[in-house]
């Protein structure tokens, strides 16, 4: 494979920067910070985990509703970067704002987290769509996996800084509280994310677009309505979105609730942070490996591998008792987390018309985000009904099984082209 171009590297560097949000805010420091705040306020452990799940469901529902509409409008010349910028600013500013919310106000923390998550996930909709502008279909698997690989590597640096500050504060080495240390971690995240987004703003541009026309908003709704009516003609695309709806639900839920789950099992904050750091380090080469192996075994077969690993993860989680068990579970997740996300992104990008990439990635988003409502709700309800968080994680098995079954009916992107073009004609 040829070396990555400047545009491909600049696009991938956004993963390097924004992944700090994923590990510090979504997965590690913020959930622990929030759980401590809720516990201090007298909230039951299972209930506080459920409230976090409900919050994730709320902001993903909002984004799922507006994603396809904004994506359709953003397909017009020059608008993709503007929408990306707006969500990027919402995400980075709200992330920094978490540092200034009183630690005892757990509800306000969740509200601020909602805006930060809207910005981060919203920006990713347009970032993902930019892949058609920076590379070719043949290189997409490797470029997408390269982005995820950089993301895992890059996120470990601010993560180490954040852990160092928190551990030094908790051991009295530096004269600040662990609350202040956590706030510093939120600021580190915002600065890191913003700094490594600069190449994306400088070098990545919208090369595929629809020419501007009168009444663009009304025309966008017409195009969106037409796409909804015609999407069934794209059988491979429709089936893939349906499969993606189920399996990515389980992936996202495990990522978002992993530290909260570990806390419920009685694992210390220090142990959780160390496990998460090693998970990031292991996930980086495996994400790139998935991209390389997809050239030999196809992207679809590697998606099979990733889904099967997650089924094992859910089953093993049911029997989780010790820190050793949690380590084993984390390493299993690390082998497939980045690979399954990277190949899903590139698989879908190969199926969509390039000039309508935002519109179709809006549907990719709505399927992914609506799925992210079901998973946290499933875990939340199961945890509350049974009083056992392990049962909540185990319940996710059904989502992976359904996703795997539907994916088996989806042809490879190269195979679908002639079939779908014939259907449209």
From TrEMBL:
* Residues covered by the Major facilitator superfamily (MFS) profile domain: 236-425
Which residue ranges run through the membrane?
12-34, 54-76, 83-101, 107-127, 148-169, 181-201, 236-261, 267-290, 302-320, 360-383, 389-407
Q: Which domain of life is it from?
A: Bacteria
Topology relative to the membrane, per the entry? Multi-pass membrane protein
SUPFAM superfamilies per record: MFS general substrate transporter (SSF103473)
**Molecular-function GO term, any one:** transmembrane transporter activity
Q: Name one GO cellular component term.
A: plasma membrane
Q: Where in the cell is it found?
A: Cell membrane
Q: Which UniProt keywords apply?
A: Membrane, Transmembrane, Transmembrane helix, Transport
Name this protein carries in UniProt: UMF1 family MFS transporter
Which organism is this protein's natural source? Planococcus koreensis
């Amino acid at each position: 494979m040829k070396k990555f171009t400047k545009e491909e590297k600049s696009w991938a560097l956004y993963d390097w920067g924004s992944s700090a949000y994923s590990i510090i805010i979504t997965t590690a420091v913020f959930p622990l910070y929030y759980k401590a705040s809720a516990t201090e306020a007298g909230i039951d452990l299972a209930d506080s985990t459920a409230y976090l799940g409900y919050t994730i469901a709320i902001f993903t529902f909002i984004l799922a509703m507006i994603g396809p509409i904004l994506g359709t409008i953003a397909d017009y010349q020059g608008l993709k970067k503007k929408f990306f910028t707006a969500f990027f600013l919402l995400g980075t500013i709200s992330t920094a704002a978490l540092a200034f919310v009183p630690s005892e106000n757990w509800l306000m923390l969740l509200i601020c987290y909602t805006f930060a998550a809207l910005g981060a996930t919203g920006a990713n909709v347009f970032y993902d769509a930019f892949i058609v502008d920076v590379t070719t279909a043949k290189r997409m698997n490797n470029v997408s996996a390269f982005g995820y690989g950089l993301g895992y590597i890059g996120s470990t640096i601010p993560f180490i800084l954040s852990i160092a500050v928190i551990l030094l504060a908790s051991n009295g080495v530096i004269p600040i509280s662990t609350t202040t240390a956590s706030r510093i971690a939120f600021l580190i995240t915002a600065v890191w994310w913003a700094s490594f987004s600069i190449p994306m703003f400088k070098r990545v541009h919208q090369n595929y677009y629809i020419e501007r026309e009168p009444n663009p908003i009304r025309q966008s709704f017409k195009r969106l309505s037409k796409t909804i009516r015609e999407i069934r003609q794209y059988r491979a695309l429709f089936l893939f979105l349906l499969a993606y709806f189920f399996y990515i639900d389980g992936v996202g839920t495990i990522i978002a609730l992993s530290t909260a789950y570990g806390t419920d099992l009685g694992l210390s904050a220090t142990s959780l942070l160390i496990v998460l750091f090693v998970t990031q380090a292991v996930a980086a080469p495996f994400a790139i490996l998935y991209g390389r192996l997809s050239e030999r075994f196809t992207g679809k077969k590697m998606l099979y591998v990733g889904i099967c690993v997650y089924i094992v993860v859910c089953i093993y989680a049911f029997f989780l008792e010790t820190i050793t068990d949690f380590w084993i579970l984390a390493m299993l997740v690390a082998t497939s987390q980045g690979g399954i996300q990277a190949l899903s992104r590139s698989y879908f990008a190969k199926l969509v018309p390039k000039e309508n990439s935002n519109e179709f990635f809006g549907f990719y988003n709505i399927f992914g985000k609506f799925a992210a409502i079901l998973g946290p709700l499933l875990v939340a309800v199961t945890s509350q009904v049974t009083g056992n968080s392990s049962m909540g994680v185990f319940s996710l098995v059904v989502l992976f099984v359904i996703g795997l079954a539907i994916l088996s009916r989806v042809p490879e992107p190269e195979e679908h082209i002639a079939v779908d073009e014939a259907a449209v004609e």
